[in-house]
Amino acid sequence: MMRFQDRRRKRETEEEERTRKYRKKTSRMSWGVCLMGLALLFFYQSNAPSTAAKKTISTVSSAVSSTSAGSSSSVAKSEKADAAALLKAKLAADWRLILVSQQSPLPKDFTVVLTKRSDGFRVDARIEPELQQMISAAAKDGVTLKICSAYRSVSQQEGLYHPERYASGSPVSVQPAGDSEHHTGLALDFITSNYHTLDSGFAKTAAYTWLLKNSWKYGFVLRYPQNKEQTTGVIFEPWHYRYVGKTYAKEMTEKHLCLEEYRQALGI
């Protein structure tokens, strides 16, 4: 009997010991899980930005990008404006585009190097080669181009100018001294073998037809076209041609622009 009871107490003691160890083990595991959770939470809070922080970072990044883009755009606009101003100044200084009229008198400091042609007329030395090429080309086509007026000094212009003609304000032919582009050495008046008068009748000659079709190839344009009188302030002069250079002459002819209109289109 005693042996049975001893064995029973022994089993109960062993069972209690196993239960105690199991509880102790479970408790340790629970604490371990808690500690691990706390550690992970601390790590995340320390290293991961909050939602507010993320929004702040995003806002700052956007602002930086916007500022950078705005700065680049401003620089580009500034460079474009500088380039446009430089081009405008270059065009305004181009001798081929000089404008001399009653609204734009010849500059006081204007100078020109003239060359005397075999026919006795003087022109700007820079246009002589192309002028002669044009006259020779016309001759090959059976058309005679004769210069009857080229460079004129201010004193020569004074002798041609009649103030009373300007009283009405209507477009005229001869400009006041200092306001004629003949002073530049770039302007020419033509006649032909069978027509020697500077009037509208020249528009019916073969010379005029040839000039309209070919003069731009040599850098010359009809300076005072028909239906442009209110713009130029000068009557239609089918005999009067002006050197502007091949590039400008081509554009003016293609676009049907007089010099005033072309300069305005260029912004000068």
Automatic annotation (TrEMBL):
Recorded GO terms, molecular function? peptidase activity
Where along the chain is composition biased (Basic residues)?
Answer: 1-10
* A biological-process GO annotation: proteolysis
From the UniProt entry, list the residue stretches annotated as the region Disordered.
1-23
Please indicate which superkingdom the organism of origin belongs to: Bacteria
Annotated D-alanyl-D-alanine carboxypeptidase-like core domain residues? 122-246
Q: Which Pfam families match?
A: VanY (PF02557)
Which protein is depicted?
M15 family metallopeptidase
Q: Which organism is it from?
A: Caproicibacterium argilliputei
Q: What is the lineage of its organism?
A: Bacteria, Bacillati, Bacillota, Clostridia, Eubacteriales
